[in-house]
Amino acid sequence: MQFIKQKLLLAIVVTVALIGGSAFAVLQQSSTKNLPTFYYYQLKPNGNPYVESDYTVRLETPPMPCGGSSDVCWIKAEDNGNEEPEITAPLEAEIDEALTVNFEDSENVKLRN
Question: In terms of CB atoms within 10 Å, which end of the chain has fewer, N or C?
Answer without folding.
Answer: N
